[in-house]
Amino acid sequence: MTTAALASRATAAARFWGLALLGSAVLAASAQVSLPMWPVPATLQTLAVLLLGALGGARLGAASVALYLAEGAMGLPVFANGAGGLAVLAGPTAGYLLGFLPAAWLAGLAGRGLPRQALVLSAAHLVLFVPGVAWLAGFIGWERALQAGFVVFIPGTVVKTALALAVLRAVRRG
């Protein structure tokens, strides 16, 4: 490999990880916009996850989430309400946090065309509830987990998915 090719690859890698770090910061900021609910707070994180994937692509979206999770695991106060540390990744919200990874990746497959984008973003938003509710059920049981960890979030999920779709469409037009 030539020196120019190596420099080009290094520049591309630095750009990618710089954007992923920026994405993790956006996700951390979105976690601080929180409506206190029990046992899972309502935040803007899922909107950020959808946009990171849809606008950055599957790889960059997932990398941003992975960095965010690593930052939180190291104790940085990036999770909802300024929390950080491994205890959060073992607590009731851990399934949702880990569900951000496949959700961001899936959102990155939104592609073009309104029907496809709407379907993919809706699926991406819903896919994070699977590990979220499953993990939460270990703490409070299935019936309560479905109610407190999914049903109460349906209106917000619809609004945030529609907002993510609108932002994606507006950015892709420009």
TrEMBL record:
Gene3D superfamilies reported in the protein's UniProt record: 1.10.1760.20
Lineage of the species this protein comes from: Bacteria, Pseudomonadati, Pseudomonadota, Alphaproteobacteria, Acetobacterales
Record membrane topology: Multi-pass membrane protein
Protein name listed in UniProt: Biotin transporter
Stretches that traverse the bilayer: 16-35, 47-70, 82-106, 118-142, 148-168
Major subcellular location class: membrane
Pfam families: BioY
Family the entry assigns: Belongs to the BioY family.
GO CC, one annotated term: plasma membrane
Keywords tagged on the record: Cell membrane, Membrane, Transmembrane, Transmembrane helix, Transport
Protein's organism: Neoroseomonas alkaliterrae
Cell compartment(s), UniProt: Cell membrane
Superkingdom of origin: Bacteria
